[in-house]
Amino acid sequence: MVAKIFIDGEAGTTGLQIRERLAGRRDLEVLSIAADKRKDQDERKRLLNAADIAILCLPDDAARESVGLIENGTTRVIDASTAFRVDPDWAYGFAEMDKGQSGKIANARFVANPGCWPQGLIATVRPLVEAGLLPADLAITYNGISGYSGGGKQMIAEYEAAGDGASHFMPYGLTFQHKHVPEMTRYTGLSGAPLFVPTVGDFAQGMTTFVPLQLGQLARVPTGRELHAAIAEHFSAIADSFVVVAPYEEIAKTPALDPQAHNGTNTMSLHVFANDSRAQAVLVAVYDNLGKGASGAAVQNLNLMLGVSAKESLAA
């Protein structure tokens, strides 16, 4: 049976990349809205209700509107906005978050695709909280750098227009009210919000994230190898995972942390670096903000919901 898929917001950055990944699939029929009817609520409503699965690539309010336009009890939804990410009635779409998460996604009617920034934090911190190596009330700082495509059409246009004059390193979210923080807090298992300082770089896509840890403040100080082992054990138990845990190395630098290292793929690589004598460590994640961080994750979730291989249409 051919599944009907409607991408509401297919002309945006995420929507275009999802459509590109789905090109050539014989098990899918992608329903498309005419360019002159993208803001026609009646036409969107018709397509939303005709779809087996609707993928929403819209701002939060528009995503809520689209869900409200679905009148049947059968259309399933993957929402790429932040509108439903902490809603208990929606499955969270980070398939590798826990051993049973892919099953929850597969059986869900409503799936909230994860944000790009939260995934790096969740992937590195959640396994350590669950293993008891980090307490849930630990004060966590989270930072990193992402390509300007994460800012959507407006930021892409601004960077491309600026050319050589574009900022190479621009921190933002300095009121610490970033829309991803509730999602980060809920799914890491932390009891308090992390201090999150994101940065946009002068490159189109890709990202590297960092969680620095002052382990000396803990009652029991884990070693770097213990941190690495807990993270590796977590992801080794997950089938069809796109998350790769790099070997533990005591090195001063590595090209593996290039934020563009996994561009065009759905791979996320995790790294642990530590100095046990100083009781310090840093947890690092590298992935494509438009791949595993957005459209790749959406296609992975779509595959799970359709009951096909999670890796269909996705480069590792």
Strand order of the largest sheet: 8-9-7-10-13-12-11
* Largest sheet report: 7 strands, mixed
Residue-averaged pLDDT: 95
CATH class of the largest domain: Alpha Beta
Can you tell me the residue ranges where pLDDT is under 50 for at least 5 consecutive residues? none
Architecture per CATH nomenclature, i.e. the level-2 architecture of the largest domain: 2-Layer Sandwich
Question: What's the overall geometry?
Answer: globular
Compute the number of helices: 9
Count of discrete domains: 2
Distance between the termini: 27 Å
Strand count: 13
Helix/strand/pairing category? alpha/beta
Order of helices and strands: EHEHEHEEHEHEHEHEEHEEEH
What would CATH call the homologous superfamily of the largest domain? Dihydrodipicolinate Reductase, domain 2
Describe the fold and architecture.
With 316 residues, the chain is of the alpha/beta class. The chain has 2 domains: 3-114 and 294-306, NAD(P)-binding Rossmann-like Domain (Rossmann fold); 116-289, 2-Layer Sandwich (Dihydrodipicolinate Reductase, domain 2), CATH 3.30.360. It has helices at residues 13-22, 41-50, 60-69, 101-107, 116-130, 152-162, 181-188, 224-236, 291-306; strands at residues 3-8, 28-31, 53-56, 76-79, 91-92, 110-112, 141-147, 169-171, 195-201, 207-214, 243-245, 268-275, 280-287. The chain has a 7-stranded mixed sheet. It has a 6-stranded parallel sheet with strand order 2-1-3-4-6-5, with helices on both faces. Strand 3, helix 3 and strand 4 form a beta-alpha-beta unit. The longest helix is centred in the C-terminal third of the chain and has 16 residues, at 291-306. It is globular and about 65 Å long. The two termini are 27 Å apart.
